[in-house]
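Marked as duplicate of an earlier ticket. Keeping the data here for the record.
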Amino acid sequence: MMPNVESVIEPTLARYIDATKLEKLLKKIFNEDIAVYEKNGVFSFTAPRHLTEDELDSVTEDTRVVE
């Protein structure tokens, strides 16, 4: 069994992440509750692997302005 890895989401992306959606996504992917911590605008969690860019995009709030 592979050891868990710590993932850190920096403030430039973290401010667009919905923490509740992130926790639900982690539960769906890994089939276990994984705590997400926030400190000084940085999210971190420990999981079996890092999330892919597509997985992170799925929990990112769309902040684009549509005209």
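See parent ticket for discussion. Helices lie at 11-14, 19-30, 53-57.
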